[in-house]
Design goal:
The structure is a homodimer. Chain A is α/β, with parallel strands linked by helices. Helix content of chain A is about 45%, strand content about 20%. Chain A starts with a strand and ends with a helix.
């Protein structure tokens, strides 16, 4: 078992990475002992893995319920969230209760947000079962739901007490979702550690083949990078924005297509190529670095171009992004492989990038 | 203008109390300068007072919208909250935006919760226009909405940046709502300051007649007491519970009648008598103190008895209270006038109190 610490003073917590943790994880059992525990999962992950957690908690938790949500980004709204509240209130769960989020990023975001606002905040544990959630959304305390006018527009910063990553769960993950996770892994290298980026590129075949050792190594290093950024900027006042490399463009793609059409990691894949292209246009990086990123994204099995929409459509979609300030988005760009900067960009360059990177 | 500080380290904020502050309040204008500002109000308070705030913000805020919600506790749910999110997103409000909550406790709780979760948290200002909101709900950062199974079950701790109390707004407040505010004022004396309790009792006629000087004095002292408690226990880990004197019984009354049937302060009035009765049964206070509280509640124009329901109905309603732990409510009791303690109570005594204080 590998342990990575997220240092946030009194809100610090460990990330535990290993095989078989769903069935045997002492820190989880200590946290759950004597408490009301709700496992929140979805109808894809629940049937595969909920029983392992339920068995582990048997006789440890004071009481236990399992709440199964409909799968998918399209269900990441208030209506689904209410199912959690209804179940917690019907079971008379109090402020001492614990939520365990078992599933991908959507389940983690929703269960985490439910924990953030149920009776003004209760404890929760992240048990991410997709590669993307393991290296990204489960760490850092961002929780939330979508609004018809924007992704993750309603949410809270609410740190988990523990993140438990059982790499066994990746064995059932579809190849497309493995690739989506690799997008965030490549991102961590691109923004913070060129050597790690190169290592991931070298390991891409093994990672796509769900090689346990290669995955554990990448998950641990990605969690370290994310934890380090989050520790220095919990509430996204500045530095944390670099984690959004590829996301301003990516969110526009997701919003324009309708959530769930492309996987989040796929949109981020194309978005990173666009952000690299823009960095290049602004003279921040060489064309070779832009090309290196495009190749890595392609080799990870991800799209390298956005949908073929009018430039104005992208501009419009980006202006509602949370990172926009009074309608003007800031971009996370690279000034070298392994180093990110946050900048506004001239409209003409943004438009040139959109034309170049959207097959238009 | 009287100023009371709420000391919460980097989340500290001032409460400003005075006449005419809606039209002229320099600290509000400084906070709003150059920002997108949303005034959130309701269809009773908005027509009376929104224009004053709008005029004051004219030329100061970068942009301004007013969101008018339907009045009343019955509307304190997700459906109403969504109107705020829709308006903010349609106006492209970003993370730098500011919400100004103009109204009673319901508006403050909802606008504050919207601010807590819009794009994972934006700034907000409380401008309470009812006596109850001025001395209670606007201070301390509790925000939230109701669920069919319980009041304020979904919410967040989110501190305002400023509380602005314009005592002129009390001139239009119905007598019944003045009395409801006096319930919380009496509560502050009962739990923390016997001298203040006696002063309030002496001033009751002036307070009920909306005498400006008497009101400003009481509002300031009540805010001081509440601020002091909140400063020492922001997230209700322990001490803050004493502010719920009268509320365990009171919430049961509100939940059982349906929200909005009795005013919150009315339920707290009867609830305080019940809590005093229980304190007396447990030998914590003399019968004379219990009687003093009952008389004060009556003189404030508040009910001194709960609805005539079966004892079991009350027990059931109290078991879902947020302060309940695994189904057993704790009670805030008095061990002297001006001094509160939090205790579990034997079921037989609780039942005796319910029989004695509900006209059953």
């Amino acid at each position: 078992m590998i342990q990575v610490e997220v240092a946030l003073a009194e809100r610090s917590y460990p990330i535990l990475i290993g095989q078989g943790l769903l069935s045997a994880c002492e820190p989880l059992l200590r946290l759950a002992a004597g408490r009301m525990v709700a496992i929140v999962t979805d109808d894809q992950v629940g049937p595969l893995y909920a029983a392992r957690l339920e068995a582990a908690l048997q006789g440890v938790a004071a009481s236990r319920i399992t709440v199964t949500l409909p799968h998918g980004e399209a269900n990441k709204g208030w209506g689904t969230l209410e199912r959690i509240f209804d179940a917690l209130l019907e079971a008379r769960f109090d402020r001492g209760a614990l939520i365990v989020a078992l599933g991908g990023g959507v389940v983690g975001d929703m269960a985490g947000f439910a924990a953030a606002v149920y009776q003004r905040g209760i404890d929760f544990v992240q048990v991410p079962t997709t590669l993307l959630a393991q290296v990204d959304s489960s760490v850092g305390g961002k929780t939330g739901i979508n609004h018809p006018l924007g992704k993750n527009m309603i949410g809270a910063f609410h740190q988990p007490r523990l993140v438990l990553i059982d790499t066994d769960t990746l064995s059932t993950l579809p190849a497309r979702e493995v690739s989506a996770g690799l997008a965030e892994i490549l991102k961590h290298g691109a923004i913070a550690d060129a050597g790690y980026f190169e290592q991931v590129v070298n390991d891409l075949a093994a990672l796509r083949a769900v090689d346990a050792a290669a995955l554990a190594r990448a998950i641990a290093r990605s969690c370290e990078i994310k934890a380090s950024v989050v520790s220095r900027d919990e509430r996204e006042g500045g530095l944390r924005a670099i984690l959004n490399f590829g996301h301003t463009f990516g969110h526009a793609i997701e919003a324009g297509l309708g959530y769930g059409e492309w996987l989040h990691g796929e949109a981020v894949g194309a978005g990173m190529v666009m952000a690299a292209d823009l960095s290049c246009r602004l003279g921040l990086i060489e064309g070779a670095v832009r090309k290196r990123i495009e190749q890595a994204v392609a080799e990870a099995g991800l799209p390298v171009e956005g949908p073929r929409w009018a430039v104005q459509r992208y501009i419009e979609l980006m202006s509602v992004d949370k990172k926009a300030e009074q309608g003007t988005p800031k971009f996370v760009l690279l000034d070298a492989l392994g180093s990110a900067v946050v900048k506004r960009a001239p409209q003409a360059d943004v438009e040139a990038t959109l034309r170049a990177c959207t097959g238009a």
